[in-house]
Amino acid sequence: MPFAIGTFGAFIQLRSPIPNRKTLFDVGISGPLSGLVATLPLLFWGLANSTVVPLPEKVEVLNFNAFNPNFSILLALLSKLTLGSELAVSEAIKLHPVAVAGCLGLVVTALNLMPVGQLDGGHIVHAMLGQRASAVVSQVARFLILLLSLIQPWLLFWAIILFFMPAVDEPALNDVSELDNHRDFYGLLALGLLLLIVLPAPQFVMELLFGAAPA
Q: CA quadruple 74, 147, 31, 161: dihedral positive or negative?
């Protein structure tokens, strides 16, 4: 979109009926999975070539010149893997441009995985639970994202957008047959990945990864 970070590519408008829930699941998970496969190598390389800087007193969201790795649990873990002992809990990262692209790629992946309506995450939950249950999940997810935006302000715009999206996904032609165990497992992994991206790293996690802040 021209006025905010985001993508309407997360919204899949299906032009022909989906034959069954297995196919619906495969359609839903293919986009975020492809994006993640492309994003992670860039993010690893970009973080490894980034610079550690002092953490400013006033931390701004998505400040790529002084990026706080507690932005998300996943980014805190990746920062530890790439920068190791160079990064302390009271320090920030001046992101390499490739790392900036990788961070934005994670944001887009999270938006794709929101379990609402015809977003990729909505398709995944519909395939796992059925249309009626996924509609309930969509409604709950909208309010949870809105509450989460109180501590993750970058989510506020998207929390509002979610309330304008239909909560009900289009049914598959065979909307009764359930998924196999492998697809259910990958669906849970996808939703777990969403949580790792959107949830900020708690203080105890940061201290566990990078050590306690100096007194």
A: negative
What CA–CA distances, in Å, run from 158 to 45, 97, 112, 114, 127?
29, 24, 11, 10, 23
Residues 6+ apart with CB under 8 A from 105: 35, 36, 38, 39, 42, 43
How does pLDDT run across 88-111, given as a tens digit for each residue? 888 899 999 999 999 999 988 999
Say if residues 42 and 123 touch (Cβ distance below 8 Å). Answer: no
In the predicted structure, residue 164 carries a pLDDT above the cut 60 = yes
Residues 32-52, mean pLDDT to the nearest whole number: 91
Cβ neighbours of residue 172 under 8 Å, at least 6 residues apart? 17, 18, 19, 20, 21, 23, 24, 127
Per-chain mean pLDDT for the chain? 86
**Residue at token pair 């973080």:** 47
Q: In degrees rounded to 5, what are phi and psi of residue 53?
A: -130, 165
All residues at 6 or more sequence positions from 56 whose CB lies less than 8 Å from its CB, including other chains: 63, 66, 92
DSSP string, 17-64: --SBHHHHHHHHHHHHHHHHHHHHHHHHHHHHT-EEEEPPSSPPTT-T
Q: Check residue 177 and give its pLDDT.
A: 83
Among residues 122, 132, 209, 210, which one has the least CA distance to residue 175? Answer: 132
Pull the structure tokens for residue 175: 């909307």
